[in-house]
Amino acid sequence: MATATKTAARKPNAAFMKPLTPSPILAAVIGAEAVPRTEVTKRIWDYIKKHDLQDPANRRNINADAKLKPLFEKDQVSMFELTKIVSGHLK
Fold first, then answer.
1. 16-26 as b/e: b if 16+ CB within 10 A
2. Which of 56, 80, 55, 51 is nearest to 68 (CA)?
3. Of 38, 45, 3, 47, which is closest to residue 17 (Cα–Cα)?
4. Staple partner for 19: which of 1, 34, 78, 91, CB 3.0–4.6 Å?
């Protein structure tokens, strides 16, 4: 019989927990304080849901409003593009 091995609990990746400073364009949406990348994503999705910006026909697409348009640089992006766009606005 094989013995069961205990797996250690996963440690959070330090890179995800490092506070990053948003660009002025991103700060208009999520606030200016430095926050971890995970919190940036959460705040953007909170904003998108609060303002009902998901495309009703295809929920994977996000429609830009006045605050998101400078960030996206177009009228609509897919949720898969969102991470790449946001990464360019974090330092």
1. eeeebebeebb
2. 51
3. 38
4. 34
Question: Within a domain: residue 73?
Answer: yes
CA distance 91 to 88: 8
List the structure tokens of 14. Answer: 């330090």
Domains of the chain: total: 1
Task: Look at residue 2 and give its three-state secondary structure.
Answer: coil
pTM of the model: 0.80
- Residue 40 belongs to a domain: yes
The CATH number given to whatever domain includes residue 64 is 1.10.245.10
Q: Distances in Å between the alpha carbon of 58 and those of 62, 63, 67, 78?
A: 9, 10, 21, 9
In a domain, residue 12? The reply is no
* Residue 47: domain span: 18-87
